[in-house]
Amino acid sequence: MKETLRYLAGIAGPSGYGSNSTAEQVTQDCACLVPSNLTAIITGATSGIGVETARVLAKRGVKLVIPARDLKKAAEVKEGIQKEIPNAEIIIFETDLSCFASVKRFSSDFLALGLPLNILINNAGIFSQNLEFSEDKIEMTFATNYLDSLYFIASKLLKSTSQGASTTCYVALSPETEGVSGKYFADCNESSCSALACDESEAQKLWRQTRALIHRRLCQPPA
């Protein structure tokens, strides 16, 4: 109840920001502190909060890599951002995150760029008609396809956030979150997540099953 009232009232937390803060506001003070060679991969950047996240990060000088299933929409987003920010660097790859082969191809293409991966933001809602379940009836399609990209191009996912471009951008760029790992943020402030999300044994179990599933897929000969 207390958190709900804080959200509705837009009361700022310890970070100085709250639910009423915009992505531009929470990154304004970071503008002069952001290194010039940061690279971010943003999925789901062709609609909703993904577009705003991409725009604000580009405005702060971050190089964007956007995997997108719809190249036309991705090109429109790129054009819109570069119209506002002419020097924005944006690279688009045709990628279907529900397809293992497509994710693997994107990973290889990204590695070929020789760029660092400083920021990984997932805004994508992934749906597949060919659902695959573990022995414990855990739906593994999302984990297989999305975590495969982490398997290829990142060592770990440092932070997670609630929905909203302001929180995502704050966590991505604020010096206050530098060195912070494995935490959950809501309304630009560190927050508590569910009991299930804090269950280390369940997390390890899911991770082991996901890695085993990925390994089997990797060892399969191409169709």
From TrEMBL:
Record's protein name: Uncharacterized protein
Pfam families recorded: adh_short (PF00106)
Highest rank taxon of the organism: Eukaryota
PANTHER family listed in its UniProt record: SHORT-CHAIN DEHYDROGENASE TIC 32, CHLOROPLASTIC-LIKE
InterPro entries named among the record's database cross-references: NAD(P)-bd_dom_sf (IPR036291), SDR_fam (IPR002347), TIC32 (IPR055280)
